[in-house]
Amino acid sequence: MSKTGGPLHGLRVLEFTHMVMGPAAGLVLADLGAEVIKVEPIGGDKTRKLKGSGAGYFPMYNRNKKSLAIDLKSEEGKAIALALADQADVFIENFRPGALEALGFGYSALSARNPRLIYCSEKGFLDGPYAHRTALDEVAQMMGGLAYMTGPPGRPLRAGASVIDVTGGMFGAIGALAALNERQTTGKGRHVTASLFETTVFLVGQHIAQYAVTGSPAAPMPARVSAWAVYDVFDAKDDEKVFVGVVSDGQWTSFCKAFGLDDWATDPSLAGNNDRVAHRGLILPRLRALFAGYSKQDLMDKLEKIGLPFAPIQRPEDLLEDPHLLANGSLLNMQLPEGGEVSLPALPLTLDDDRPGLMLDPPRIGAHSVEVLGALGHTTEEIENLVSRGLVQVS
């Protein structure tokens, strides 16, 4: 996006967020060119210090943002944040209900000062009986039906990534962009709210619809009745695995021809997709034996040549060497705040041939405090005074 600054160039976003959902919303806007100022407490967003499965949260969802570290509970820190809110187009927050209202940064307070402000709240639940509850990605997956659909019967299993946090953040960004477009006509902002629970329910909507259409509840994915006869993970040589799909009658014909399955190609009982689904018990054992004789690469080469859906079973770290991702700019090389380098996924889209890229590394705590305060009109002496009193942090 370096040529034009991105389609959101000139848009200012003030972000009061932590963890994943709120930062993901800001990331979308930042990658598309908005100036995103992340307001952190003195000592930094606690997300920076997470270990284990949370260790990647901060670097993944906070690139292309500026860090301002201030004491919001002080009069000076509050004044700084309010001055920024007065100039902002979008305000993003994902704190527990009532937390920002208590600090004077709720929607009513900020919109009264800046009627054009789009205030984006990323919450656990939309309004209703659950609105007071504390929610996390995993909580939403469990109560929203996704964990039930992901694991085998009797063993609910969360998805292997923070899919609800990220998707909820995306819905928040979509709502904010819609409100910005409306503001061009009305001149007024909106309070946009996205939520984890309702996002999860939206994602399992296809299974709700399946129940309405068929009259039978959807089975968890490991126990589902597949819509296609060949739509599985198969073993290849050397303990490797490949996913293979055959999802149309034309693909079935090409598949049989390529693998020498002439008897199946001419069998009228296997001519239609639903016929093949009914004969999965016949088809799959033979294919498993057939594919076990191929190396992973030979099998994939053959499937690619005939144009069938296939996929190697890759781990996240394998993607760093994926030739397709390396060739098309899908991995962005950046510096970690604590030192070291990392390659992380870009937004999965292009605008014409322009790919959202890296403009700012994930910031150190208060890396842009001096810049942001200077733009607000604070003198060097005033900034130094705030720093010396522990009300502003710089790095």
From TrEMBL:
GO terms for molecular function: CoA-transferase activity. Keywords: Transferase. InterPro entries: CoA-transferase_III_domain (IPR050483), CoA-Trfase_fam_III (IPR003673), CoA-Trfase_III_dom3_sf (IPR044855), CoA-Trfase_III_dom_1_sf (IPR023606). The keyword Transferase applies. Pfam families: CoA_transf_3. SUPFAM superfamilies: CoA-transferase family III (CaiB/BaiF). It comes from the Bacteria. This is L-carnitine dehydratase.
